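TEACHING EXERCISE
Course module: macromolecular assemblies
Task: Read the component lines below, then compare them to the predicted structure of the full complex.
Student: A.B.
Group: 4
Components provided:
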Amino acid sequence: MGGGGREGRSYRSRTQRKHFKQSRENVWKRPKPDPSSTDSTDNPAWQPFATQNPSFDEYYKEQGIVATEEWDRFIEVLRKPLPAAFRINSSSQFCSDLRSQLEDDFMKSLKAEVTEEGEVDAIRPLPWYPNNLAWHSSFSRMQLRKNQTLERFHEFLKLENEIGNITRQEAVSMVPPLFLDVQPDHFILDMCAAPGSKTFQLLEIIYQSTTPGVLPNGMVIANDLDVQRCNLLIHQTKRMCTANLIVTNHEAQHFPGCRKNKNFSSASDKGIETESNIGQLLFDRVLCDVPCSGDGTLRKAPDIWRKWNVGLGNGLHSLQVQIAMRGISLLKVGGRMVYSTCSMNPIENEAVVAEILRKCGGCVQLVDVSSELPQLVRRPGLKKWKARDKGVWLASYKDVPKFRRTGIVPSMFPSGRCHMDTTNDGDKHENGIDANSIGLQPVEDAFPSTDNLDEEVCDLPLELCMRLVPHDQNTGAFFIAVLQKVSPLPAGQETNISPQGNMPTRNDAPPNQIKEETDGLEVNMADGTDEKDPEGSSEGNSIDNEDGAPAEPDPLSSGKDDSVETEVPVNKETGGKRKLQMQGKWRGVDPVIFFKDETIINTIKTFYGIDDSFPLDGHLVSRNSETNHVKRIYYISKSVKDVLELNIQVGQQLKITSVGLKMFERQTSQGANAPCSFRISSEGLPVILPYITKQILYASPVDFKHLLQYKTIKFADFVDAEFREKASNLMMGCCVMVLSKGVKVSSEPIQVDASTIAIGCWKGRASLSVMVTALDCQELLERLLMRMDTEKDNSVQGNITETDEVHHMNDNSESEKPENATTSS
Ligand SMILES: C[S@@+](CC[C@H](N)C(=O)[O-])C[C@H]1O[C@@H](n2cnc3c(N)ncnc32)[C@H](O)[C@@H]1O
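Instructor-supplied answer key:
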């Protein structure tokens, strides 16, 4: 089991499991009728989606997103359902077992089942994804029911997905994080992160080269405007068991910079002893996967065919520019930002990138990544395109009628030119948005553009952007641009950033944005997203309004957060009615508080014999200022600690929805009579495991398996006499059972490696109970058996068969279980 949760297995509590299931309810479940199926017996009531839209055809033919001779093939593929793709969670303890199972078992056994025209393999690794960790399956969900072989594969996917070892994700959506060139010590901002598939990938990358028990130096801040989608992200990333993640809830275009400023009374003045090592929030990497019209996901979400209209992209362009510019200003010099959308529309893609380059006046460059991921088939970005409005093609801003200039802005055109001569409106864009309002001056003349305004061509190297089109690799469509900040932004460009480091709130924000006041009174959640569909159409955020009229914001009361259950839920701990609500800066969100209660910390340290080399000081946080009511204590990495300390010093600018790894949980049931009332949580175990020296039991495979099978076993029923004795001599309360070849007695820290398997248990008066879910027990049992098969460890197999009868083991044991112990549900 690896430290930092990387190799460690995540045994989630029942509550977590429930949330996780809910958040992924449409994943791998029994398939809906296949829209492409011609078999009307599937579901006679089924009406296939109309997979055509004349405006769509007209628009994209004119934009030339594919060559004329390719159009038919492009549309044909676009109308087909998207083949499934999935990733193996590289932080799963069984990552290589799963990969081997796919490579050695399923790839062969499914070969005869190939049905997709043109497909050679039924399943195959995506050639451009490192280490065979991402896979393509040519089966539609319907097909997976056809016969026994397919059914077995389907069951495999379903179980591993539920466990969290496999994540379904659109192939093209896996690409952006790979172009970020992430290192383990990087500070990364994921600006529009929910539901979190890419955040998950980023975390996997920073954890990749860490050794067990050592957390990486880097961290990820995953931000999303939508609180409920943030929740999906929190549940999604929980499987990473990471202490290196902060989830925030801001408008990305106003993401706080947390710059220290003398205007802020220092934290120590307020009795908070923190001194952050960092002076402001700047990031090595920024992922800017913006809200978009989402027509690249047509194959997955065919309802977009019906909804699609030209205004979708037009309505999002300005917001996309603002979010991207904020990302650039939060990027360190030398840092990389990836701008991506799942839209094919040049107004949301090349036009946005061109505007960033113009505004940054040479401080930001497009990176040539043609040698990276060479197996990924990509096409260059467009250099020319047009805008369309009210059924009229517009080649240049000067063609835009005055009364339409509120919706169609100069940056939508290849030259980006305002043609001030015709509008003469100073620095104001015609849509009323001050060009300076996002902190940067337009640098119009830095990039001379063509004078042929009938067909503008952009002089910027937009060919370095990447377009992924469906018929190249049987995927969805995607757009990716890799940008590097090569020098600080010109002086004065960030003058609009407030002393707090925040972008100012503006009256000229796009109409679909409610301004986010610094006291956090209002948060806009209306972005047209479908929060019920974490893996479905969520990549795109289609706006339903015709002709680009931005969606009306939900009438969101500030108390809406109440219904949201997050990992660190709002005011759950006090039980009181929103008692803590006003204690933090952000209404509806409890403050993050460094947990410093020495009595509790020392009790925990002593009970588990936590080695001094595991830093607890300053690494524990809670969401409750009343120590006696703290139920959960979270562990944070050094990098997260630095950010939290900075955040305190700058007046809690970050609105933190979730932070840290749940490490200790207060035991409140009758088991609370134990000397230490805090148990180690399943998520926290992989991180702390190498550092605990007490309350450890080394179990033989036989007893380990028995406990997984029966969940609770009386001491007398353990096979191994030495284990029996050791278990009964342990102090009452939480303990850790480590799978071992023999029974060890040791007060040394556990020698943890990638193959170590350990689970949390509860030692009662007469029995031992597991503290992991039934599903996790089942999965662990299956994996252990498979490993043993591979190792041809016949003696162990024999032992299990011989000793499979364990008498009376469940009698009277239930009463001793702690609240988190598994039942056979
Ligand atoms: C394309 S999705 C992001 C998908 C995500 N990166 C992933 O890989 O799972 C765009 C996200 O932007 C969020 N969003 C919309 N407007 C936003 C804003 N102004 N600031 C931050 N996030 C925003 C939406 O809630 C949505 O979750």
